[in-house]
Structure formats: structure tokens, C-alpha cells
TrEMBL record:
UniProt key word Signal: yes
Span of domain Thioredoxin-like fold: 51-135
Keyword Cell membrane: no
Protein name, as recorded: Thioredoxin family protein
Gene3D superfamilies cross-referenced by the UniProt entry: Glutaredoxin
Signal peptide: 1-23
Organism: Roseibium sediminicola
Key words of the record: Redox-active center, Signal
Organism superkingdom: Bacteria
């Protein structure tokens, strides 16, 4: 009986270790949703101000229906507490549909839709993650004032380190993100926390 129980336990552990991350909720627009995403009127100045009042930074994520990389971001990265806990503590995240029709008001006051905003700002990949300044800038559009942009899907440590670099205002210093990421990555390897990205 003990052997049978041990075998069943081993099979269950092995099978569950290969399951993908927890699936995100799917919205009517075909985009994966996280309960901690913030729903706003997509007025960029108001959103930057609202994030600032919470002691956070505004992040905009462009996604699209059927995007395999977006799904992987939700299932693999946003199911990892180390990633999501850091993001939720320091950032207010607003989701945009690359081909959506919801109204967007750019920082320069221009009224757009999500899809025309994506075109105006030059974002063509999904996911694209856009990091905005701490305070509402005096002039410029989103693409002109963004402090960093992450186009596409990356592994956990590149992804998380970009959020850390922005939180630490690395864009104001001399250490380029790639140098920052390499330094943090090597420190994590030396601590035995990672084998590879």
C-alpha cells in the first residue's frame, strides 16, 4: 500500500510540475485580464496623477487578441508572485488593446482611440510595456516622455529587472539597463537563485 501511495504521489507531483502557469481571465475583448490591473478612462495625464497619488508609477501594457506572447506573459510571468508582488507595490498598470476603439487622451491633449494611439506612439509589438514619468510632464506625447519601453516578451529576470530599474530611476543614472540587468542577473546566479533565464 505504501508503494502504491508513493507511486501515485510521484505521478501527481511530476504531472503538476509540467502544467503551465495559472490561466488569466479572458475578457470580452479577447485580452487576458489580471484582477490587479487598473481600469481608467485612459486620460494619460489623469492616470499619471492617480498613480502618483498612490505612490506608484503608471505603466501601460499594449496587448492584442490572440497574442501568444501576451498569453505567456499572463500565464508565466503574472502567475509568479515575485514578479506580481513587486509590480503591484510600485506600479499602476493599465491595459490597452493594440486594435481597440476605447478613447485615449494623449498628454498633448489629442483625443485618440487605443489603435490610433498605438500608431501615433509607434508601438507595433504586443506585449509592449510603456513606463511613464512620475509626474505629468508639461508637454509632449506619451512616446516622447516615456522613461522606458519594453517591446515584446522576455524571460522573468529581464522582465522583472526592467520594472526594478525604472522603480530605482536607473534611466536617470549612468548604468544602462543592459548593464544593470547583467549585474543583477550575475548576483542572482552567485546566490544560487537562478541557473538560466
Amino acid at each position: 500500500m505504501r508503494i502504491l501511495t508513493a507511486l501515485i504521489t510521484a505521478v501527481v507531483i511530476t504531472a503538476t510540475s509540467y502544467l503551465p502557469g495559472i490561466a488569466a481571465t479572458m475578457g470580452e475583448d479577447g485580452l487576458h485580464k489580471q484582477p490587479w490591473f487598473t481600469i481608467t478612462f485612459k486620460d494619460m495625464a489623469e492616470d499619471i496623477q492617480a498613480a502618483s497619488e498612490e505612490g506608484k508609477r503608471l505603466v501601460v501594457i499594449f496587448e492584442q487578441r490572440g497574442c501568444t506572447y501576451c498569453r505567456q506573459m499572463h500565464e508565466k510571468l503574472f502567475s509568479d508572485p515575485e514578479v506580481t508582488d513587486f509590480i503591484k507595490e510600485h506600479f499602476m498598470v493599465v491595459q490597452y488593446n493594440m486594435f481597440g476603439d476605447e478613447e485615449v487622451i494623449d498628454l498633448d491633449g489629442e483625443e485618440l482611440t487605443e489603435k490610433t494611439a498605438a500608431r501615433k506612439w509607434g508601438y507595433v509589438f504586443t506585449p509592449t510595456i510603456v513606463f511613464l514619468p512620475e509626474e505629468v510632464p508639461e508637454d509632449g506625447s506619451v512616446s516622447e516622455v516615456a522613461v522606458a519601453t519594453m517591446p515584446g516578451l522576455f524571460g522573468k529576470w529581464t522582465f522583472l529587472n526592467m520594472f526594478r530599474w525604472v522603480h530605482e530611476k536607473g534611466y536617470e543614472g549612468e548604468e544602462h539597463f543592459q548593464k544593470y540587468h547583467a549585474r543583477i542577473y550575475n548576483e542572482l546566479r552567485e546566490e544560487g537563485r537562478i541557473d538560466s533565464e
